């Protein structure tokens, strides 16, 4: 059975949809399932494969992103009559601030592209724009993969985004963390043993074998080192082996050795057939040796785009040769910063880069021509057949178009909730002190509430007080979880654009917060709600005695109940404050 579809063969027939290709590959994998171990086992050793990875070529042209500044917010911070300073020249008089200005570039699989620049130059914004984390309405320009426009839905499936901060559960081990990620992101159809195999392969790929059984840790618990933690974080996002990987400053906060190891891991991921794009502050000399393409930004504009090897040539042609034995990137960043402080800013360098790019254009054209020979669909299907994109093969409408036919999420909602719920419980179980503190806080709150609402009677006032308690308890529950609500809302917003996992990973913190306090308060609230409702029901005949009387006279209840209700009605009318609150029918309407 032919596992990898021949591109030549595919081209001579009608052009299949991506769904058909994925289905074909899935069928081939199913047929071969018994004959050979699942492809995920081979991911850690791409070199062992005889076939070369299918080439991917990501190109972005004239990416421009601007935001409208809120003048009301700025009225205290700046003098509106003052002219913009050199650092603010990207802000137009109409309040539009250009964060990315006509950025173009290209990246291909097997390579790492790094975005460099001073703080505030737009590195994270560019990574976000490429990772489809920016509103399409405000982002101009095109992004193509192997010549096809990269649709959001397809990008969600074939890419991953690693955030700058590590959101990991402190009391889970490295292996458990990756296993939960596998259960969340890999399809249900993949057996547990294959998920475990994928996790083991990933642990080797990330160089985490020695730390596999160590807990992640936090301020109160010793755990893995900072570099290992960052690698675990990357691992949770690449469990499905994406084709494109975006990382926002993966080396920030790490010492040079740990940073080097992280980038080394990224190089290994790239060599397994992925495009890796990351932002980085000041890479060391050794890290520079691992990078293949660089983009230097200054105030949202490209000041250099090319390989690290071309840097000396570029700057010597610009008239600022890089001294020998000097770190090239450090020199370039220092020079850019110096230029930014001059009256003309980096305009000269931006213009020089444009002419330099045109001069070197033939080189780029050659790269494109000698590069990908496969169409996007062929390249993706061949990539999947080699073990990439583990979750991308799950389901899909084979008759649909290329983007609609790819399953967006690996698992249904309830499985995702079950996985993150189990993970939160495992983590909480291992932190009894935290559990105790939260439970204690709930009990103390309950105790205080109990003293306020102790001994409620059955009068209408009592009913009202119960309702008051209900409102109070619900708002207490709300404020207990309010701390995590901004993150939750933000993630719900991003959820539309980024992979589901990141969203859930954050929102699972809400769950973790709520999981202890919610049940207790909800139980309390529910109990009081039921009793209050019961009291309310008991008062209904008194409040609405007219329809009740009619109902009683129609024979809606037996005589025993009728007479007892009538007695209650009568007594209430004699001495109850209800008379003040609810207009009741005249006494003559009561049949005694
Ligand atoms: N919504 C926004 N409105 C106005 N300005 C913004 C907005 N978002 C980002 N910026 C500005 O855009 C610029 C680029 O931000 P970005 O986060 O991309 O910088 P960066 O190069 O990644 O910086 P750092 O290395 O410090 O993370 C900054 O000056 C920032 O203040």
From TrEMBL:
SUPFAM superfamilies given for it? P-loop containing nucleoside triphosphate hydrolases (SSF52540)
Task: State the residue spans of region: Disordered.
Answer: 30-49
Kindly list the GO molecular function terms attached to this UniProt entry: ABC-type transporter activity; ATP binding; ATP hydrolysis activity
Recorded hits in Pfam families, A to Z, give: ABC2_membrane, ABC2_membrane_7, ABC_tran
Localization per Swiss-Prot or TrEMBL: Membrane
Q: How does it sit in the membrane?
A: Multi-pass membrane protein
A single Gene Ontology CC annotation of this entry is:
membrane
- Residues that span the membrane, as ranges: 435-456, 468-489, 510-534
Keyword Ion transport applies? no
The UniProt keyword set, sorted, is: ATP-binding, Membrane, Nucleotide-binding, Transmembrane, Transmembrane helix, Transport
Q: Domain ABC transporter spans what residues?
A: 83-324
Where's it mainly located?
Answer: membrane
Question: What SMART domains does this protein's entry cite?
Answer: AAA (SM00382)
Is Plastid one of the keywords UniProt gives this record?
Answer: no
Name-wise, this protein is: ABC transporter G member 20
The record lists the organism as Pisum sativum
Q: What broad taxonomic lineage does this protein's source fall under?
A: Eukaryota, Viridiplantae, Streptophyta, Embryophyta, Tracheophyta
